[in-house]
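Job type: complex structure
Entries:
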Amino acid sequence: MSSTGPVISERVSMQDGAGGRAMRSLVEEIFLPGFESDQEGVIGLSAMDDGAAIRLGDRWLVLTTDSHVVHPIFFPGGDIGRLAIAGTVNDLAVMGATRVLGLTCAAIIEEGLPKTILRRIQRSIREACAEAGTSIVTGDTKVMGRGELDGIILNTSGIGMCERVVSDAGLHPGDRIIVTGSLGDHGMAVMAVRHELELDGDLESDVMPINDLIDAALRVGGSGIVAMKDPTRGGVASALHEMATKSHVGIVIAEVCLPVRAAVRSASELLGIDPLRIANEGKALLGVRPDRAADVLDALRHHPKGRDAAIIGECFAERAGSVVLDTGFGRRLLTEADGEPLPRIC
Amino acid sequence: MSSTGPVISERVSMQDGAGGRAMRSLVEEIFLPGFESDQEGVIGLSAMDDGAAIRLGDRWLVLTTDSHVVHPIFFPGGDIGRLAIAGTVNDLAVMGATRVLGLTCAAIIEEGLPKTILRRIQRSIREACAEAGTSIVTGDTKVMGRGELDGIILNTSGIGMCERVVSDAGLHPGDRIIVTGSLGDHGMAVMAVRHELELDGDLESDVMPINDLIDAALRVGGSGIVAMKDPTRGGVASALHEMATKSHVGIVIAEVCLPVRAAVRSASELLGIDPLRIANEGKALLGVRPDRAADVLDALRHHPKGRDAAIIGECFAERAGSVVLDTGFGRRLLTEADGEPLPRIC
């Protein structure tokens, strides 16, 4: 690898891992070829959803994987262990698999890491598993030398089961968009620590498994819940863009309806980061048929993890694939980020 | 973290990731607590097997995970992509799940890595998947900054299905130990590149998915195949120790029967590394009832991937938990390595 090598676009950049358009291009251009044609009864890689689904008799087995590289490892409201469990459980849940059969945990550890740190992480993995009603069933441990890796990486994969898979592509004109709680908490909490921001309000990550919350919504909403996605990397903006594009609808979001905590709003102004473009780790976006929206919202709000749930938008046949923000004074396109160059927030 | 911090044993060392006794201690001491009691119908973390098994009706779903951190990324006979697929497929296969339902692939990439390298890796992932009759069904991409990660890490998880789970703990006195081919090829090929050894013979990694080979053995051996394990990190010595300890038998191995290629033998003498203690990535150890051993060996040898298969040892009631090497001149204990400090060979 010489430093006067290929042009810049021919090297992987931080944006390529940030959950936006750049990452999707990288995956489509490099990882997808040869895996486009899924077997029968499989929702696979080409669906570019939060996970895969494999038909087993009259049910679906849902499978997902995530690597977690957050820095710092411990942050207000959580740590890399809780993040790993919540991330994987929530990816299963938004595909409809709220019953988690088991999780894997693969740790890659930097040589010299104090074992006390591993013990703290393991404890929070255990607690998050208990909260999600599941367990680590198998794992892997690798150690890399100093200078080869900074800290620790956790990869978690998970399998769940359900009767109906909910994709992120099922929206129709008229459907309502519901978010299960406040926006931007995780990303802003991590960024504040990294920028050593001193804030008045409490800035805490929302990291939590929400399979129980989604289960409560599905019990009430049934097949009226037509699409789900968790707005992690790239935030709500990226997630809605993906849903709108895949569903061939336009989405209009009302800014006044967006649940954003005061502390997050302040930090976002200080840091110049839009809360719609930063990761959430305990939230989901639901697309719901108009006649079921009020009941689903009610069910969410009666759940301890869904008190701040809100209907934030609606789907239209016009402007398919785009997301429009209604500010109250006018409307503007919420462009899809190429991928914010924010390393290691999840 | 001050440099005059905790005593050395309280920090993670390279040995802790090398597949030997040190790694098992780390896992038992830190990762296992709280996950000892498996749910009913689940073979979970406490079994410390190559994967987990979950009962689904009258069948078993087998789940496994592995991270791959090999350096160099490309080595004689393969690369990190082929290694990842083979490693995960073989972990499923040695638990009896030779039919692979799907694999996940999570890539963690260093910023600046040329995309041509990713394309080469993806191609070999695709080829290895085709060879194993499976596919990548979902994935994840993260990018870490320069100085945070050296190169690329792949994590692959996999699910498979079978009617009967084969554990690594099912050996009885009298059972024969069969290895499916030559020993030490992968580890020695990688170490030779890293030491820039110039050798006469061809030193090539054995990395390949062998679910088809194991399926051929199971078709002939049936329930007469009572234990399986793939001798990756820590090599045959570690794998046999684990099988002997869990099965409460002693294992005697005949040195003269061990299939070791001439090039591996030469390299092992030059480098001072025992071929029994270094990783294989396309081999399995089978414990077979004495009356089925000849037929299983025959089935293996008639398969293109099993031509060098050999019966290498036998199980005894005496010296439970130990492995003895019969050199032809006498017998000596094959001690379990604490974990060779060989970073990044798989």
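Summary: The longest strand of chain B covers residues 99-110. The helical segments of chain B are 21-31, 80-93, 115-132, 185-194, 211-221, 235-247, 262-271, 293-301.
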